[in-house]
Amino acid sequence: MNSITKRWLRSSLLITFLLVAGAVSIYIYTLISGSYNGVQQAMLSRISSMGGQLKITTGQSAEQTSQSRGSLLRRMVEQFDEKDKFEFMLLDSEGQVIATSSGGTLRYEKAPEDFLMAMESPNSSGRSVYASVTGERVMAISVMVPYPAEDVAALRMVTSLTMVDQMMVERVLLALGIGAVILLFSAWSGVFFIRSIVRPLDEVAKTANAIARGDLSARLPEGSDGDEIGRLCNTINQMAGELSKTERLQNEFISSVSHELRTPLTSIRGWVETIAHIRDPEDENYRKGLSIIGRETDRLYDMVEELLSFSRLQSGVKLECRPLDLVAELTDAALFMEARIRAEGLRLVYEEPELPLPIWADGSRLRQVFINVMDNAVKYSSPGGAITLDLLQDGENVYVLIKDEGRGIAPDDLENVKLKFFKGKGAVRGSGIGLAVVDEIMTALDGSADISSELGKGTTVTLRLPIYRGSGEAPDWAVNAPKESPEKE
Ligand code: ADP
User: Fold this and answer.
1) What pLDDT digit, counting tens, does each position of 415-457 carry?
2) What range(s) does the HAMP domain occupy (predicted)?
């Protein structure tokens, strides 16, 4: 049996069982005592009305009074009109029967228990319940006569309990039946409820296992009614969707990186074979070959550098921040890119501001951010276009705007360009991690990278960083930030 069912049995059903059992027991107890007390009360009220008549009976002397009370009582016994329900008796001081409404003569072996109790009780009455000679359960009440009445010492009334007992058995059975029905109903509704949770959870566990084993196409039925299990199913489906998207992007990444590596390698191998046969170092092809090999090696080197820095970021390498001048850093990156920008037939538009803009950052990471963004601007621009760098600031932040007049990004690609391994439609060479690295570094520096673009018109990347106002010590965000990159795996 699974554990949710066990827990439910232990908590809910056990408590219901105890409550029902308690309620039924209290009902049975009050039923039994109430019924017997009712019978007792009925007999006592009859006896006391008879006793009351004795009080008004008088004679000329005490003896005569006693005699007339005795004969009054005997008459009462003879004329007792509820013989079918009760047996009315007069007892002497030994507890033996003087007269009885059933008319027979009766001798007890010893005085009845209720008579003995009445003799001793302060209220002069006693009650006993026993099985009669016929085996029938009866209740007897004895009340001592309050006034002398010849040899009559006590009035006694006996009645059968058969009807009362039968009624009680019926009611007890009814109460037990209702209790059992309540328990069965709560067990049934509980089992139904538990199944409605446990079954879908089994399904969830199976699907999650399948996903964990690598079957990323496994999906759960969509939870339509919006309850917790439905939401769990939807979340797992979403997770599987994200995983398969990541897996697809990762596969695309591997194939595009392999392709990117193969192109320069093919060129290098071709040129190596060519110059291997050239004996004259002054040969034009010899020099051309060497320069191409040199360029392609640089390209390979840059690419490997980018991959390495990405993997370092992923494994949570710490940033080494210190106070820097943003203007100087941007100018440095612009100078580095300038030759390439010109070589591609593009213009670099940058007016270096005169005043420094202090920030708290890791210089080499920041340079990587600028170069990645400018590299994209170069890759996606056509000759003749301009690449414009702007620096703005408000009270809290500085903004670097890198703007190109290139082909722009399609609106449905725009939301994905910052994802790892994502390459847009018609992407030129690249592994799809450039902007992911930019975003990760900017976030780690308490800044952000926003990209706006219009297809056919150009793209603007806005890099925001907080202005640093300290004098050498780390700002609050850097002190409180986790020491490692948030994406540590
Ligand atoms: P990569 O390292 O391959 O260049 P990025 O993460 O830098 O990858 O860019 C992701 C995608 O975003 C590119 O494949 C390209 O489609 C698009 N993109 C990025 N910058 C620009 C830009 N300035 N103009 C047009 N498209 C761009």
Assistant:
1) 999 987 788 887 777 778 889 889 989 998 999 999 999 999 9
2) 195-248
Helix (H, G, I), strand (E, B) or coil at 341: helix
Domain membership flag for residue 336: yes
Q: What distance in Å separates the CA atoms of residue 292 and residue 473, rounded to the nearest whole number?
A: 47
What pLDDT score was predicted for residue 174?
A: 95
Q: Do the domain assignments include residue 214?
A: no
Kindly tell me if the per-residue pLDDT of 483 is higher than 80: no
Instruction: Specify the length of the chain in residues.
Output: 489
CATH number of the domain that residue 263 is part of: 1.10.287.130
pLDDT digits 0-9 by tens, 85-119: 999 999 999 999 999 998 877 778 888 999 999 99
Q: 485: pLDDT confidence band, cut at 50, 70 and 90?
A: very low
Which residue lies with its CA nearest to atom 25 of ligand 1?
Answer: 408
pLDDT digits 0-9 by tens, 204-221: 899 999 999 988 888 988
Q: What is the mean pLDDT of the chain?
A: 88
Q: Which is nearest to 154 in space by CA: 113, 189, 122, 125?
A: 125
Domain residue limits at 30 = 3-167
65 and 147, same domain (yes or no): yes
Q: Which of 115, 146, 167 is the last residue of a domain?
A: 167
Ligand 1 centroid to Cα of residue 96, in Å, is: 119
One domain for residues 335 and 244: no
Structural domain ending residue among the three candidates 277, 311, 345 = 311
Residue 114 forms part of a structural domain? yes
For residue 422 and ligand 1, the question of a CB distance below 6 A is answered with yes
How many domains is the chain built from? 3
Q: For a substitution probing ligand 1, which of 249, 303, 376, 420 has the most ligand atoms within 8 Å of its CB?
A: 376
pTM: 0.54
What is the whole-number distance in angstroms between the Cα of residue 208 and the centre of ligand 1?
A: 34
CB 423 within 8 A of CB 252: yes
- Report whether residue 424 contacts ligand 1, using a CB cutoff of 6 Å: yes
Helices (H) and strands (E) in the chain, counts: 12, 12
**Is there an atom of ligand 1 within 6 Å of 423 CB?**
yes
Cα–Cα distance, 203 to 225 (Å, whole number): 17
CA of 246 relative to ligand 1 center, distance in Å = 18
CA-nearest of 38, 292, 359, 260 to 167 is: 38
Do 154 and 248 share a domain, yes or no? no
Is the C-beta atom of 418 inside 6 A of ligand 1?
A: no
